[in-house]
Every structure is written in C-alpha cells, then in structure tokens.
Amino acid sequence: MNSQQKLILNELHEFYSQDIEAITLLLAKVSHRPPSEIQPYLDAMLQQLVQSSTERPFYETATPQEWIAAFQEWVESHRELNLPTLSDEDISRESIYGERS
Q1: Has residue 41 got a pLDDT over 60?
Q2: Is the pLDDT of residue 38 over 70?
Q3: d(CA 71, CA 77)
Q4: Which end of the chain is more exposed for a tag (fewer CB within 10 A), N or C?
Q5: What is the pLDDT of residue 71?
Q6: Is 50 exposed, middle or buried (0-12, 13-18, 19+ CB in 10 A)?
Q7: Residue range 76-99: mean pLDDT, rounded
Q8: Enclosing H/E stretch for 2
Q9: Alpha-carbon distance 100 to 55, whole Å?
Q10: What is the pTM of this model?
C-alpha cells in the first residue's frame, strides 16, 4: 500500500469512524462474533477498496512492450484449445462479404 492509499484509508477512518463502528457492531450482531474479530476483516476490506480505487488500469499505464507481452500471453493461453485455423480463403474479403451489388 503506497502513502497516498494510506492517507485515504486514514481519512476514511477519521471521517467515518462512527459509521465504521456501527457497521462493525452490526456485523458482530448478525455473525454472533465479537467486534474484535470483525474489525480486521472490515479493515482489510476497506484497504482493498482503497487500493482498487487508486490503482490505474493496465490500459492507462502499459508500455508498448507490456501490451505486446500481454497479447502474446493471451495468444498462448488459447493454444491449448486446439482451435482450427482459418485459411487465407476463409478470411478473404470475398468470402466475408460475398458479391456485393
């Protein structure tokens, strides 16, 4: 977790402490567990939510080399399916569009 994410998490705990406590108590009530057992799970969930909301997606940060590697990995993941390949005729313009008037 980077420093920006830690700051966001701390702000959440600061500004929503009453709500977090209420959620903890409600979860303790419905699960029949003490709040001390619930709190680590709630903290982990909040941390995961903060991380996923602050991380930039692959398509925004990937270099051309990373795109190539990801595409090649995707291609390789489909090789074991043993799908039939298409001939040049099968993918020709004429076979796709037929005769157009």
Answers
A1: yes
A2: yes
A3: 10
A4: C
A5: 96
A6: buried
A7: 86
A8: none
A9: 49
A10: 0.50
- Token pair recorded at residue 7: 């700051």
Dihedral angle over CA of 17, 40, 8, 3, nearest 10: 140
Mean pLDDT (the chain) is 89
Tokens of 79: 């090789």
| Cα–Cα distance for residue pair 11/13, rounded to 1 Å | 5
Chain center to CA of 81: 25
User: Which strand (E) or helix (H) includes residue 24?
Assistant: helix 17-31
- Average pLDDT, integer, range 37-65: 88
Both tokens of residue 101?
């008037």
Cα distance between residue 93 and residue 45, in whole Å? 52
